[in-house]
Amino acid sequence: MYQVMCDGYPLLDLRDKRLILVNPKVKVEVNTVGEGSFTIYKNHPYYGKLKKKKSVVEVSDEIGVIFRGRITEDT
What is the C-alpha to C-alpha distance for residues 11 and 19, in angstroms, rounded to an integer? Predict the structure, then answer.
């Protein structure tokens, strides 16, 4: 099971129906910069916590963090 956190706030946790993201995707390769994307609706409890160029998003699974990056675009 995957979890997505942003600055310590849970964005995606399948155990809580309020913490849902639409189309979350992560692309990770060896020796390259990874990338991730997702859609978050304005009614998400932590929508207002995301700050472009400042917030750090982490994607983890049962083993540990598999992606960490900053928000560079918000459209």
Answer: 5
Strands 56-60 and 3-6, sheet pairing: antiparallel
Contact 43, 33 (CB under 8 A): no
Which residues, other chains included, contact 45 with Cβ-Cβ below 8 Å and sequence gap of 6+? 18, 19
> How far apart (Å, rounded) are the C-alpha atoms in residues 11 and 36?
14
pLDDT tens per residue, range 8-31: 999 999 889 999 999 999 998 888
Please state the pTM of the whole predicted model.
0.86
> CA 14 to CA 62: how far, in whole Å?
13
Read off the tokens for 64: 């540990």
